[in-house]
C-alpha cells in the first residue's frame, strides 16, 4: 500500500505563537507530502520493498537497491522524521511539556538535569550547518544520547548516523520549519520550541525502548 500523509491531531494554528499556522500548513501539506510522493515513486521501481515498514526502510537504507537508495534515504527519512515530528509537538497545556517518570530519572542520570539536556540538544541543533535535525535517542547500551544529522538522515539508519540510536525526540532545523516566523534566528526557534514539546509521546517511546 502506498504511503500517505498522516493527519494531524491538532489544527495548524494550535502551536501558536511558537510555530505559526502558515508554516505548519506549508510544512505539512507541501514539504511532507513531497517526501511521500517521491518515496512512493522510488518504491514503485522495486515492488519487493513495499512490504517493508517505513521504519525498516530507514534502518536498512544502506542495503537497499542502489538505484533507489538515495531517494529512499532522503524521502523515506523525510517521511519518517516528519511523521514523528508532528507527534513530538502538542498545543500548550494539552500534554506534559517536561519529562516525567522513568524518562526524567534517565535524563537526570545521563545529563544531570533537564536543563542540561536542553542546553546540549540546543547546541547540537544550533551547530548543524545548513539543513538537518537534532535528536535525543536511546543508544544500544540503553543510555540516552544527543546528536544531529544532515538533511533527512536520522540516528536509526545503519551505517549513516554518527551515533546509532533509536530516536525518541527530534527537531527539524531546516529553514522551512521556522523561517517565516524566525527568519535567520534559529536560536530563538530552538528556545521557543520547548514550550510545545509533547513529552507524553517522548516518555511513551522511551518506556517502549526500556522494555526491550
Secondary structure topology:
Layout: H1 21-44, H2 54-59, H3 66-87, H4 101-111, H5 114-127, E1 132-139, E2 144-150, E3 165-172, H6 179-182, H7 186-193, H8 199-210
Antiparallel strand pairs: 1-2, 1-3
Helix pairs in contact: 1-3
Describe the structure.
By secondary structure, this protein is mainly α. It has helices at 21-44, 54-59, 66-87, 101-111, 114-127, 179-182, 186-193, 199-210; strands spanning 132-139, 144-150, 165-172. Strands 2-1-3 form a three-stranded antiparallel beta sheet. The model has no long low-confidence stretch (mean pLDDT 97).
For the structure shown, list the relevant keywords:
212 residues, mainly alpha, three-stranded antiparallel sheet, 8 helices, 3 strands
How confident is the prediction overall: mean pLDDT?
Answer: 97
Q: Given the structure, what is the number of helices?
A: 8
Q: Based on Cα principal axes, name the global outline.
A: globular
Report the β-strand fraction as a percent range. Answer: 5-15%
Strand order of the largest sheet: 2-1-3
- Provide the low-confidence segments as ranges: none
Cα radius of gyration in angstroms? 17 Å
How can the largest sheet be summarized?
Answer: 3 strands, antiparallel
Distance N to C terminus: 29 Å
Helical content stands at 40-55%
Amino acid at each position: 500500500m502506498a504511503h500517505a500523509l498522516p493527519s494531524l491531531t491538532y489544527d495548524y494554528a494550535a502551536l501558536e505563537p511558537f510555530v505559526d499556522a502558515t508554516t505548519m500548513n506549508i510544512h505539512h501539506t507541501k514539504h511532507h507530502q513531497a517526501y511521500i510522493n517521491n518515496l512512493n515513486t522510488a518504491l514503485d521501481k522495486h515492488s519487493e520493498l513495499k512490504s517493508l515498514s517505513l521504519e525498516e526502510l530507514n534502518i536498512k537504507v544502506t542495503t537497499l537497491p542502489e538505484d533507489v537508495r538515495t531517494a529512499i534515504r532522503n524521502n523515506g527519512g523525510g517521511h519518517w522524521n516528519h511523521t514523528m515530528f508532528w507527534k513530538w509537538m502538542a498545543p500548550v497545556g494539552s500534554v506534559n511539556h517536561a519529562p516525567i517518570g522513568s524518562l526524567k530519572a534517565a535524563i537526570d542520570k545521563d545529563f544531570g538535569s533537564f536543563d542540561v539536556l536542553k542546553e546540549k540538544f540546543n547546541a547540537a541543533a544550533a551547530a548543524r550547518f545548513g539543513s538537518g535535525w537534532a535528536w535525543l535517542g536511546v543508544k544500544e547500551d540503553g543510555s540516552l544520547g544527543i546528536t544531529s544529522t544532515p538533511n533527512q538522515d536520522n540516528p536509526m539508519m545503519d551505517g549513516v548516523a554518527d551515533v546509532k540510536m533509536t530516536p525518541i525526540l527530534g527537531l527539524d532545523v531546516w529553514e522551512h520549519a521556522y523561517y517565516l516566523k524566525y527568519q535567520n534566528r534559529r536560536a530563538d526557534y530552538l528556545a521557543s520550541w520547548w514550550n510545545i514539546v509533547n513529552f507524553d509521546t517522548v516518555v511513551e517511546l522511551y518506556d517502549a525502548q526500556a522494555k526491550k
